[in-house]
Task: structure prediction
Amino acid sequence: MIHTLYLSLTLAAFWLLNSGHYSPLILSLGAISIAFVVYLAHKMDVVDHEAQPVHLTLKLPGYYFWLTQQIILANISVVKHIWLGNKTITPTMTTVKSSQKTDMGKVIYANSITLTPGTIAVDLIGDQIIVHSLLSENIEALKAGEMDRRVRQLEH
Amino acid sequence: MKDLLAVAMLSGIYGLLSASFFVTMDAVDVAFTEASVGAGISTLLMLTTIAIVGRFERSQRHKPSLALAVTFFTGVLLIYGTLDMPYFGSPNAPANQHVAPQYLNDTVLGQDKSVNQVGVPNVVTAVLASYRGFDTFGEVAVIFTAGIGVLALLAVVRRPEEDAKIAAINESMHQKNLILRIVIKVLIPFILLFALYVQFHGDYGPGGGFQAGVIFAAAFILYAMLFGLSTARRVINQTLIQILAAIGVLIYGSVGLVSILNGRNFLDYNALSSDSIAGQHLGILVIELGVGITVTSVMVIIFFNFAGRLENREANESVTRNISSDGHVTKEKL
Amino acid sequence: MLIAATIAIIIVMILAIIRGVIGPTLYDRILAVNMFSTKTVLLIALLGFVMGRPDFLDIAMVYALINFVSVIAVLHFSNDFEFRSSAHSDAKESKSMEEDS
Amino acid sequence: MDTALSIGSAICLLLGSFLCLTGGIGILRFPDFYTRMHAVSVSETSAAGMILIGLMLQSPDGIVVIKLVMILLMVLFISPASSHALAQSAMRHGLKPWLSTTVPAIKNKHNETASDITSDKGVPPSNL
Result:
């Protein structure tokens, strides 16, 4: 129930922010559209704690702030190596263990790895994430577990 | 190039490129359609076809150089022909002297309510849906016919025993594509709502039934690809969607009939309401809805039948493979 | 500055097309298309500002979505494609490797 | 205030163009598919972010800013998913990555845990 409410609210915000036309006709069409989409979403079975992470709402902004910093730092290093050329890169592929319990947590962790330039989560099997990285230092940083810990904190 | 898949990828780039070109020419609505149809759905259907027929072209016996020469010659002639044409945007061009000035005067320039005949800020929508209502009706009929054609040629006969096998394949796929599955779960409601937003804001900005239908169908196609065709079939009833494709055309046509019954011409929306602007507005809204319904259903029908054929073939192949391996085993025993 | 950014993006689009044409593997081509369409999103947003018509942004949004759908489609059907390399592209790739390393 | 905004926007756009070009050079310069993905990832995160932020700073009204934010969020949400899907599919169809030979110490350590997925040192990538 709470997920339906959450979905309807986000959809309503999406419509209102995008629309820019607030005549009664358009608003009522918007309401009908939202109801229809929520109905379809229920029928498709895409309304649950995975798709609507209500419990994460308060914690996500802090995590994304930290992630943005990481992305900027990683960008600088990758840009440097693009200009320095192929001799300076040390591509590595290895597995990293993820300590998250839920699927949602694993997906956030894997997506954060991919979003950070220099590392790509190639595959996710059980709790092992196969990571390809441009530099071997990146893998070392991942293995140190800072990101893993932060995502795990997000789950609780 | 013999690799058809590479050709499909490059044609996707071509679609994106031509849409950017339309944007530079200020043809927003055309760019919108090109984005959703040219770069999106047609690439997707091409990929499905390649998956069915195989990736590599057979070696051809004829020489392509003659065809290339003819194409080149025609191209040169066409470019030579454009030299005689008026410059782009020239006020003396025939396109700007015939009916276009009246359309524009009636819609854009006549912002004054008493002059404005259509009352829709987006000129393209006004022209396509109101002045050119007949042509658009024809287009919808063409799309509907395409859907019927695909149904007639490719409709899959499904046997119930295959369902269990397909469901098992889907189950294994779920675990494999965990990340994509969750991302798409989050995304799908927003794609659907965005399609409806495009549908209903066609009066104000770029958009309308065609684009909205394609985006709406894209959401279903995404769902079918990630969650399996049989799950998607359970959500979207096949019979219902075939009926909806017809209903879309019927909605469009019946708007025309209502205006005839009110003593006006076919598709004259002024007849729908005592206030002519309100009538135009209502008429355009309803026919765009009809267009959207037909386009969505036909796209979904086409994709489902293509993909269903593929899935059936795979199921058959695995059946024959099992039989042949069984045969092998028995032979060894003998 | 808008014009400069537009030109930069067009140059990157050309680079992506080059990668799409020379391949050598199918995945490089998909990657090129993927990059090309992200750049198209940016290009359309920029053009909207250059031409003073910010309502182009809806199109940019459609692009972002459609791109995703087509990438997923390629990968979904990839099991049905015969992933075999021609000897020709093999040779080309290993040659370029030698030059690079 | 206006000049500050336009200077900020110009800096963002310039930086975005530079990052974009870097990504474009990376996709041509890097040796194999997986490393090229990193170059694309640069142009999709920071370059797109910088250009869109630059545009936000010179938007005429609120709704444009909101749409730009939405495009940015969408790009940031979709691009890791599609890169991941691409890499996953490439891996499963047996596209071998080109791995470095210059850092044997680290590589050997990882090879113990991941010998089944990595190809041998310095072997050029095989094609599909």
